[in-house]
Amino acid sequence: MLSKRVIPCLDVRNGRLTKGIRFAGNIDIGDPVESARKYYEEGADEIVFYDITASCEHRGIFLNVVEKVAENIFIPFSVGGGIRTVQDMRDVLLAGAEKISINSAAVKTPELISEGAMAFGSQAVVVGMDVLRVPKSREIPSGYEIVIHGGRVKMGLDALEWARKCEKLGAGELCINSIDADGTKDGYELTLTRAIADAVSIPVIASGGAGKPEHMLDAVTKGGASAALIASIVHYGSYTIRECKEYMAQHGVPMRLVW
Q: At what angle do helices 86-94 and 63-72 cross, to 10 degrees?
């Protein structure tokens, strides 16, 4: 069985690490380069970097910050935010990332997924999905709707339908972020995560809501995720990456434990 992954997420605004709850109330909590290096040294399996306002501000990503992070870590590094073209993808990869994460641009221009997969390989293309729980309807039969631009714009698109389409277009991985759970520390949205994990055959990353290692264990067991994305619990020092991974390993989850 493949090892499960623990992936700290660095949300960056104006070059600084930031954190909010349900995509609102963000505060400055430090330097993303220092945090990335710390999490790498603690045993993180990957690092995810999101320039959270690049899309809604209609600008490119802060490549200088990407370069600095890439110089300080030696594990897979995924970057998202403001990536709208294949050239944007190339620029991010050349800045030192191993993977590109596309979200809003993928919804508006789905062919960007297939173009990226053809240019750089499916393994380099991660589609981020920001998902909001809504009443079930003919348009949204799952009760989970895709939203873009940092949760600001509803798209009338069912999350399960979109997940299946992303896989068909060539995405190598999906990162499922529940806006309802984001930053709450109350646990991942397991129903959503499980539904998408069962709907596709590519790896699924659970995101939004981790408050303790038990939540991460639930994400990869009950939720069927291949990885757990975390932020608040390590940013604020509640737990270390090592403590999280050791807890999961003690409960029978295959983990990479190299200190």
A: 40
Are 149 and 56 spatial neighbours (Cβ–Cβ below 8 Å)? yes
Annotated catalytic, 130?
yes
Largest distance between two CA atoms of the chain: 50
**3-state DSSP of 199-223:** HCCCCEEEECCCCCHHHHHHHHHCC
What pLDDT band is residue 81 in, cutting at 50, 70 and 90? confident
Q: Per-residue pLDDT for 67 more than 80?
A: yes
In the chain, which residue ranges form alpha helices assigned H by DSSP?
A: 32-42, 63-72, 86-94, 104-108, 111-120, 159-169, 190-199, 213-221, 232-235, 241-250
Angle ∠(103,1,74) on CA atoms, nearest 5: 55
- The amino acid sitting at 251 is H
How many angstroms separate the CA atoms of 132 and 250, rounded?
33
Cβ-based neighbours of 90, under 8 Å, separated by 6 or more = 119, 120
- Check 11, 51, 91, 158 and give the catalytic one: 11
Distance CA 80, CA 101 (A): 4
Half-sphere exposure of 201 (CA within 13 A, CB side): 2
Q: Active site includes 28?
A: no
Q: How far apart, in whole angstroms, are the C-alpha atoms of residue 8 and residue 235?
A: 9
pLDDT digit string, tens, across residues 184-196:
889 999 999 999 9
Residue 134 dihedral angles phi and psi, to the nearest 5°: -135, 165
- The pTM of the full predicted model, rounded to 2 decimals, is 0.91
Q: Which of 45, 51, 88, 130 is catalytic?
A: 130
- The residue among 32, 93, 46 whose CA lies nearest residue 74 is 46
DSSP 2: P
* Contact predicate 17/235, CB 8 Å: yes
User: What pLDDT score was predicted for residue 163?
Assistant: 98
